[in-house]
Amino acid sequence: NPEYIKLNRIYIVEKDKNKNVSATPLPQMRLKKDNLNAYQPILDALQIPSFNIYNDKEKIILVEGIYDKYVIQLFCNIDSETAILPGTCADSIINNIQYLNGFSKRYIAIWDNDDEGREKYSKASKVFGDYESQKFDKLPLRERQNRKMEQMFENDDLSKIRNLLKLPEDSGYEKIILTLFHSRGKRIKSINSISEDTKSNFKILDQIIKKRFEASEKIESDDDMD
């Protein structure tokens, strides 16, 4: 948990071919592009975005956090050419947009539809302008006043998934999603168990993602013509 374990207290220990051992602070490992993929599980656990592994992807979805990434991969219809880049909060998406624009990557950005998400969505729209903001969107409300990714699950669907995974009754959203993401054998059964309302939420999110990528592609085409 990065709230309790500071990045500068974590070291990657390596042994070279001559059996020499080195200990490098984790943040510095991000600069070693050739080695970056090997440390991705650690970076994911610490909720640190890592850009280098996304260079071979055609499309990128920016989201607020690592559990948003897990949920979209599990419950949305994402093809193999699409990567999901998690930030560390709603505001971090704006920094990631700047990076991806700098490298001419095709991307879209999805925020939670709560007070913070709407605030950062509006901020991004002002910073990047109306044209670029065609790539931005929020989670579908569907008669709600607010919706975070956790609230994409209606009724008792998270409890159903928790029971299928045989987790303790006090297991929270993050524990349930993390366990499901790494429980390949129970994924299909768990996904099929959710209610039609929840399935509809993710179908709408699929439509939002498709719409924003279509806008992103059009923007790129217009830029090429210019």
What can you see in these coordinates?
- With 226 residues, the protein is an alpha/beta fold.
- It is 47% helix and 13% strand.
- The chain has 9 helices and 6 strands.
- Strands 4-3-5-6 form a 4-stranded parallel β-sheet, with helices on both faces. Strands 1-2 form a two-stranded antiparallel sheet.
- Helix 3 (66-75) packs across helix 7 and helix 6 packs antiparallel against helix 8.
- It is globular.
- Mean pLDDT is 84; it is low at 31-39.
- Helical content class: 40-55%
N-C termini distance: 47 Å
Strand content: 5-15%
> What structural category do the secondary elements indicate?
alpha/beta
| Largest beta-sheet characterization | 4 strands, parallel
Radius of gyration based on Cα positions:
19 Å
pLDDT below 50 for ≥5 consecutive residues: which ranges?
31-39
The total count of helices amounts to 9
Number of strands: 6
Shape: globular
The H-and-E topology, N to C, reads as: EEHHEHEHEHEHHHH
Strand order of the biggest β-sheet: 4-3-5-6
| Quaternary class | single chain
Q: Average pLDDT, to the nearest integer? A: 84
Which characteristics define this entry?
four-stranded parallel beta sheet; 226 residues; 6 strands; single chain; alpha/beta; globular; two-stranded antiparallel ribbon
Question: Quick summary of this structure?
Answer:
This protein is 47% helix and 13% strand. It has 226 residues and is of the alpha/beta class.
Write the layout of secondary structure elements.
Elements: E1 11-15, E2 21-25, H1 26-29, H2 40-45, E3 59-63, H3 66-75, E4 82-86, H4 92-102, E5 106-111, H5 115-132, E6 136-138, H6 157-164, H7 173-181, H8 184-193, H9 196-225
Parallel strand pairs: 3-4, 3-5, 5-6
Antiparallel strand pairs: 1-2
